[in-house]
Amino acid sequence: MTDLHRLSIRELSEGLKQAQFSSRELTEHYLKRIAKIDPKVKSYVTVTAEQALIEADAADVALKSGHAHVLAGIPLAHKDIFCTQGIKTTAGSKMLDNFISPYDATVVAKAKAAGLVTLGKVNMDEFAMGSTSESSYFGATGNPWALDHVPGGSSGGSAAAVAADLAPIATGTDTGGSIRQPASFCGLTGLKPTYGRVSRFGMIAYASSLDQGGPMARSAEDCAYLMNVIAGHDAKDSTSVNKEVDDYVANLNGTPVKGLRIGIPKQYFNVAGLDADVKARVEESLKKLEEMGAILVEIDLNMTEAYVPTYYLIAPAEASSNLSRFDGVRYGYRCENPVDLMDLYKRSRSEGFGAEVQRRILIGTYALSAGYYDAYYVKAQKVRRLIQQDFLKAFENVDVIAAPSAPTTAYKIGANLSPTEMYLGDIYTLAVNLAGLPAINAPVGFDKDSLPVGLQLIGNYWSESQLLSIVHQYQQNTDWHTKRAAIAEENA
Ligand code: GLN
Predict the structure, then answer these.
(1) Helix%, strand%, coil% for the chain, nearest 5
(2) Cα of 178 from ligand 1 centre, angstroms
(3) Model confidence pLDDT, tens digit, residues 165-187
(4) Buried b vs exposed e over 29-42: b needs ≥16 C-beta within 10 Å?
(5) What is the pLDDT of residue 1?
(6) Distance from the CA of 154 to the center of ligand 1, in angstroms?
(7) Going from the N-terminus, what domains does the chain have, and what CATH number goes with each?
(8) More exposed terminus of the chain, fewer Cβ within 10 Å: N or C?
(9) How far apart are the CA of 90 and the centre of ligand 1, in A?
(10) What are phi and psi of 338, to 5 degrees?
(11) Is the pTM of this model over 0.90?
């Protein structure tokens, strides 16, 4: 079979169960594609071919027994921020270029337990700080829709791998948009769950009060399958919430679009940098949802201007604390021939971290320092609460909130945006993390350069099922999610 990479997760699951193909055949098919096509896309940092085939054979045994998990034997790629026992985990940094974790992240362990086959680890912005994946120590990844453009970030490798059909699904993480924005740039569906829904254990920390893992795939249905595996309470993550997990697949048609109240924040559609094509595609998608029975309601989100400054204070503050563990002593990069302990710390960190990471550590350390703590950090936390209240007030009147996922489509590689220009590109995604809410990106068309545009739907706490269901029904009525980049059409 030459077109196994065109099958959805449900079709793969059925094909494996009915023995139309084996997990070994499917895994070899993907490994072949990676070997031929990934040198152009550069989405993988590490390909675990040998291990993948062992896992595939084990899945085939389980499938024969008739007791396999519904996803057994299906390959996936993990963002290189999830610790994988025995396999290098770099977080896109020179600091961890040689780091082999002694344990699996909970997300990885759950995927393994379900019999999913790990194809490898995919590229990302260094320590998940960025929106282009260019800050990776391992170099830039190409956007499958136009290889001289970025796939977005920080989960750019995950997005590029799925969009080029080099993995049917991938894990990502989202601290301020890193699942939704690359999904938007690469024409994929990506879900950022409610904070606490997916365990952060073994997920290398960027900003712990904002970080959340989630699925990236072609469709809401594919995302739902992966969510069913990775969601849930974990005693090893004290912020994971002990709340029953929905069956996201069973609920795919569970939320009626008819009568659904969709909030359209006035402030979001008047943002200076909002590209005209992005605006037009998002408005067309809302029109479509309206045709399907949804009611569009204009709402106010008055704190919009505060999103970027608040996030870019809190996230670096938490990062400066989290990244203090990389000291050249215990694990990670260590400089050559240190003259004393201070020299070891200083040089290990200045040689091991890239420019963006160092910038954020400096900003965060400053914001947390004794003289400025109240003026910056405490103030930002208060504004954060106001942002959350703004959303809760909106949800008294609407079921979900619609927005673009990003003000533009994918940038050119090397566009060299200034840090502030890049931060402003996060305007639509940051508040969701500050408030801890779930949100989803769905592809809704293309701009004049044939680059994908994404619609974001933001839900109230624990509404992952509703978000997946709304997008699923939209996808039953449209075909944007079935469009494939030319490179994905290439055969290995
Ligand atoms: N672009 C944002 C940042 O650089 C978000 C990144 C993320 O979600 N990990 O912080």
Answers:
(1) 45, 15, 40
(2) 5
(3) 999 999 999 999 999 999 999 99
(4) bbbebbeebbeebb
(5) 64
(6) 6
(7) 4-261+398-489 (3.90.1300.10)
(8) N
(9) 17
(10) -65, 145
(11) yes
Average pLDDT over residues 442-457: 98
Q: Whose CA is nearest to atom 10 of ligand 1?
A: 129
Cα 297 to Cα 259, 286, 376: the distances in Å are: 11, 11, 35
First to last CA, the chain: 11
Residue 342 belongs to what H/E stretch?
A: helix 341-352
CA of 423 to the centre of ligand 1 (A): 8
Q: Which residues pair with 442 in a beta bridge?
A: 455
Distances (CA, A) of 187 to 46, 324, 422: 24, 36, 20
Structure tokens at 426: 């996060």
Which residues is 389 bridged to in the sheet? none
Q: Is the CB of 390 under 6 A from ligand 1?
A: no
Please name which of 212, 211, 214, 213 lies closest in space to residue 224, comparing C-alpha atoms.
214
Positions annotated as catalytic residues are 79, 154, 178
User: Distances from the Cα of 454 to the Cαs of 277, 355, 445, in angstroms?
Assistant: 11, 29, 7
Q: How far apart are CA 84 and CA 402, in angstroms?
A: 36
Q: Is 315 in the pocket of ligand 1 (CB under 6 A)?
A: yes
Amino acid identity of residue 421, one-letter, is: E
CA-CA distance, 180 to 183, in Å (whole number)? 5
Does ligand 1 lie within 6 Å of residue 456's CB atom?
Answer: no
Residues, the chain: 492
- Does the CB atom of residue 81 touch ligand 1 within 6 A? no
CB 154 near ligand 1, within 6 Å: yes
Contacts with 343 (C-beta within 8 Å, 6 or more apart), sequence order: 335
Omega of the bond leading into 154 within 30 degrees of 0 (cis): yes
Contacts for 35 with CB less than 8 Å, ≥ 6 apart: 47, 492
Angle formed by the axes of helices 9-17 and 23-41, to 10°? 150
For the Cβ of 131 lying below 6 angstroms from any atom of ligand 1, the answer is yes
Closest of 81, 120, 93 to residue 198, by C-alpha: 81
Q: Are 186 and 481 in contact (CB under 8 A)?
A: no
| Segment holding 14, helix H or strand E | helix 9-17
Q: Residue 336 carries which DSSP code? A: S
For the stretch 203-219, pLDDT in tens is 999 999 999 999 999 99
Q: Is 251's pLDDT higher than 90?
A: yes
Residue 476 Cα distances to 78, 160, 289, 469, angstroms: 28, 24, 12, 10
| Contact yes or no for 230/78 (Cβ under 8 A) | no
Q: How are beta strands 400-404 and 452-459 bridged, if at all?
A: antiparallel
Looking at the CA of residue 179, tell me the nearest atom of ligand 1. Answer: 8
